[in-house]
């Protein structure tokens, strides 16, 4: 099923239907002395704004305000909605993406928004790998030049800020606008390329809101309702100066956007939380749930209560031949709340881009900051097309194990993928481990009983592992359970048709 769409504009939130229509909301504030100064649109609105197909205008009104939107040349009338001087006006959906000129006027004056488009708005958030800019990706000069052709993609970039209390306005680095030669290099590569690769599939405008900060925890981006559900918080005692403290980025860099209608969000974060997988698993589930609730309520129901949420599973760290910390696999598993795939019962209507096979060991920015952001964004787009836009014909997940068969006579374990429906591309014979023990007790992630087992042969949709070296029972199986499981795109298991990698996997269920 295709989700409702959202749109972009300057002071307008939009909502897009499955046909690409958008409904959006405009907000503004005239201030306390409304009679003495003209109304102003909200801080997130401006020229070159991207808005959903329907519009809602808001501001602070003493008298009637008039907004120009909806069908070209038509007028709508709004009323004051609160004693705080804020107003809201919802406009019907339109099929024409624009550009439009939107005017909001009253007896005190008029505000004009120029070059406003209607389309889907995606929020991009997380830490350094989301913040990683276009001018640092592979082939950066060519990528930046190509980006300039996408004038119907509009971007809004926040400045870093933190706060101990919720804010209604946001600090801005790059106000709404199309890509420019002087600005594209500093934009998030994952965010921009996601929009660039997605837009041709939609044929209508896209708005991208980048609000991210390197070196930050998931707790810092979480609302209090999420923090309260997950009491085990490793960052509670961080000093006031630190952006890892719970709530501080939610308050300053997410809360101001709640009254904007968004279509979906993409998230690339987790490195700061490595070492705390149990806490992260809880927090990830709650962040997705609470963001959905908060954006839905803040937009007066215009943002879908189950808006699509995409995320990137952590990439690699050190080269395979280097010392392995092996804490990344636990965090990758926690990102999926212990399922290994998305969407899942704990993370409905989500999609995940696997990135463990995209190491960049020679990156001048550190191996964890892979420059292969093009692959990351392409994988995210596949998930968005399938989950967010209802494209059931688009494959967005790599192979996943569904059946284990012990061949005692051959001392072999056969692992079948996707119930035998997905042809496999086997690119290596390593990557699997079994827990060889008499019970499951020593089979935690860092237990001593895990041993490498090679792929000895494979069928169309299965692989055979040699377990001849195990003299006890096979009490667990895992795949790609290393900080850096392989060289670039050379892990063992890929889908032959889509080229997508099998994600990391672990089970502690006895298989013999």
UniProtKB/TrEMBL annotation:
Gene3D superfamilies to which the protein is assigned, alphabetical? SGNH hydrolase
The alphabetical list of record keywords is: Hydrolase
Q: Which domain of life is it from?
A: Eukaryota
Q: One GO BP annotation here?
A: carbohydrate metabolic process
Where do the record's region annotations for Disordered lie?
28-50
The family database entries (PANTHER family) matched by this protein are listed as:
SIALATE O-ACETYLESTERASE (PTHR22901:SF0)
Name it.
Sialate O-acetylesterase domain-containing protein
| Organism, as annotated | Pomacea canaliculata (Golden apple snail)
């Amino acid at each position: 099923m295709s989700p409702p769409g959202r749109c972009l504009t300057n002071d307008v939130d939009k909502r897009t239907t499955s046909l690409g229509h958008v409904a959006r909301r405009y907000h503004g504030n005239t201030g306390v002395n409304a009679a003495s100064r003209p109304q102003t649109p909200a801080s997130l609105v401006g020229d070159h704004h991207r808005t959903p197909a329907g519009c809602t205008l808001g501001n602070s009104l003493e008298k009637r305000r008039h907004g120009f939107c909806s069908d070209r040349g038509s007028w709508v009338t709004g009323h004051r909605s609160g004693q705080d001087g804020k107003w809201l006006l919802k406009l019907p959906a339109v099929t024409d993406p624009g550009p439009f000129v939107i005017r909001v006027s009253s007896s005190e004056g008029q505000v004009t928004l120029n070059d406003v488009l209607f389309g889907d708005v995606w929020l991009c958030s997380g830490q350094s790998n989301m913040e990683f800019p276009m001018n640092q990706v592979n082939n950066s000069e060519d990528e930046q030049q190509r980006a300039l052709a996408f004038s119907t993609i509009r971007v809004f970039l926040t400045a870093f800020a933190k706060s101990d209390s919720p804010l209604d306005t946001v600090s801005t680095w790059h106000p709404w606008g199309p890509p420019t030669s002087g600005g594209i290099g500093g934009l998030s590569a994952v965010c921009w390329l996601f929009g660039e690769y997605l837009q041709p599939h939609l044929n209508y405008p896209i708005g991208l809101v980048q609000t991210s900060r390197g070196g930050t925890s998931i707790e810092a981006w979480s609302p209090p309702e999420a923090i309260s559900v997950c009491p085990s918080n490793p960052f509670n005692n961080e000093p006031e100066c630190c952006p890892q403290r719970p709530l501080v980025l939610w308050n300053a860099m997410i809360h101001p956007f709640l009254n904007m209608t968004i279509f979906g969000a993409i998230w690339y974060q987790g490195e700061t939380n490595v070492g705390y997988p149990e806490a992260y698993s809880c927090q990830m589930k709650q962040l997705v749930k609470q963001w959905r609730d908060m954006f839905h309520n803040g937009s007066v129901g215009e943002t879908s209560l189950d808006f699509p949420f995409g995320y990137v599973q952590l990439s690699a760290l050190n080269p395979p031949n280097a010392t392995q910390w092996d804490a990344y696999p636990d965090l990758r598993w926690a990102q999926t709340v212990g399922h290994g795939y998305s969407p899942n019962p704990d993370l409905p209507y989500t999609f995940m881009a696997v990135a463990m096979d995209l190491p960049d060991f020679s990156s001048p920015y550190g191996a964890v900051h892979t420059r292969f952001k093009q692959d990351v964004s392409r994988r995210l787009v596949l998930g968005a097309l399938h989950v967010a836009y209802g494209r059931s014909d688009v494959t967005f997940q790599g192979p996943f194990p569904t059946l284990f068969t012990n061949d005692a006579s051959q001392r072999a374990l056969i692992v079948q993928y996707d119930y035998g429906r997905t042809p496999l591309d086997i690119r290596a014979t390593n990557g699997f481990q079994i827990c060889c023990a008499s019970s499951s007790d020593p089979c935690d992630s860092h237990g001593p009983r895990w041993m490498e087992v090679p792929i000895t042969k494979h069928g169309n949709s299965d692989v055979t592992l040699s377990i001849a070296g195990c003299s006890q029972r096979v009490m667990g199986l895992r795949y790609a359970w290393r900080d850096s499981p392989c060289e670039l795109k050379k892990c063992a298991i890929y889908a032959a048709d889509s080229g997508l990698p099998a994600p990391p996997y672990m089970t502690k269920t006895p298989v013999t």
